[in-house]
Amino acid sequence: MTAGGFDGVERRGLMFVLSSPSGAGKTTLSRMLLEREPGLKMSVSATTRAMRPGEVEGRDYFFVDKPKFEKMVDQGELLEWATVFDNLYGTPRAPVEAALSAGQDVLFDIDWQGTQQLHQKASVDVVRVFILPPSAADLEKRLHTRAQDSDEVIRGRMSRATHELSHWAEYDYIVVNQNVDDAFAEVQSILKAERLKRERRTGLTEFVRKLQRQLEK
Ligand code: 5GP
Q1: pLDDT at 147 (0 to 100)
Q2: For the Guanylate kinase-like domain, which residue ranges apply (predicted)?
Q3: Looking at the domain assignment, is residue 213 inside a domain?
Q4: Which of 77, 164, 190, 210 could pair with 72 as two cysteines, CB 3.0-4.6 Å apart?
Q5: Considering the entire predicted model, what is its pTM?
Q6: Domain for residue 65, yes or no?
C-alpha cells in the first residue's frame, strides 16, 4: 500500500471518509475533491435501493437486488455494510484494495455505521470527516432543491438526520458546510495535511538517509 508522494517520498495510501446527514452537501464536496485531486479514487458502493433519476450504474452505485447483496456479504466481498433507510449499502472490497496497492487514496461516502467498521479494520489508514449543515432549515432546503425524492422520503431523511448527527464525536474532523467553496477548501486542507503525516510516509527514513549522505560529502 504505497503511494508515490508528490515530493518523491513514498507513503501509504489513505482511506478518506466523508459522512453527513443526507443533504449536507457531501456529494458535491466529493465531486469537487475527485475533480481536483487526481490521486484520489472514489469507492463505488453496492446498494439495494432504487436508482434515482440522473444516477449511473457503476458510477454512483452498483445497483443490486437483496439476494445478490446477501451473497456478497456471505462471500466476504464487502469491506463494510449497513442498513440505511431500509436499504442495504456496502463497500466492495476488491476495488479498494486494488486502488490502495496502486498507490491511490480512496474516498468513501458512507454512513457512521460503515465508518466504524472501516476504522475497526484499518484505523491508522482511515481519516474520518463529518460534514454538518449550518442549520436544519438549510438541510431541508437542500433536500427539496435536490428534487429527487418524494416529500415522505424527505421527511424520513430529516428525522434520520437527528440520529446521524449524534455520531459527530466519532469523527476526526468536523466541517460546517456554510458555503461550499469554504467547506471544500477545508476538506482539501485536511486531505493535504493527512497525506503529510509522518506515520504514513514510509519512504522518509530512506529519504533522510540520502539527505544525510549528501550532507556528509
Ligand atoms: P443515498 O441513498 O442518499 O445515496 O445514501 C444514503 C446514505 O447511505 C448516505 O448517508 C451514504 O453515506 C450511505 N452510504 C452509501 N454507500 C454506503 C456504503 O457502502 N456503506 C455504508 N455504510 N453507507 C453507505
Answers
A1: 66
A2: 13-192
A3: no
A4: 77
A5: 0.92
A6: yes
pLDDT in tens, 53-87: 899 999 999 999 999 999 999 999 999 999 998 89
Chain centroid, CA 157 distance in Å: 20
- Is 205 among the domain residues? no
Looking at the 3D structure of the chain, how many domains does it have? Answer: 1
Sign of CA dihedral 188, 191, 196, 201: negative
Q: Does the beta carbon of 114 sit less than 6 angstroms from any atom of ligand 1?
A: yes
Which atom of ligand 1 is the closest one to the Cα of 164?
10
Model pLDDT, residue 85: 81
Atom nearest to 20 CA in ligand 1: 10
Name the residue with the closest Cα to ligand 1, atom 24: 110
> Beta strands of the chain (E only): which ranges?
2-4, 10-12, 15-19, 40-42, 46-47, 62-63, 78-84, 87-92, 105-109, 126-132, 173-176
- For the stretch 123-167, pLDDT in tens is 889 999 999 999 988 888 888 887 677 888 888 888 888 888 999
CB atoms within 10 A of CB 120: 10
Residue 159 covered by a domain: yes
CA 27, CA 61: separation in Å to the nearest integer? 13
The pLDDT assigned to 1 comes to 47
CATH number at residue 105: 3.40.50.300
| Residue 197 pLDDT | 94
Q: How far apart are CA 138 and CA 83, in angstroms?
A: 26
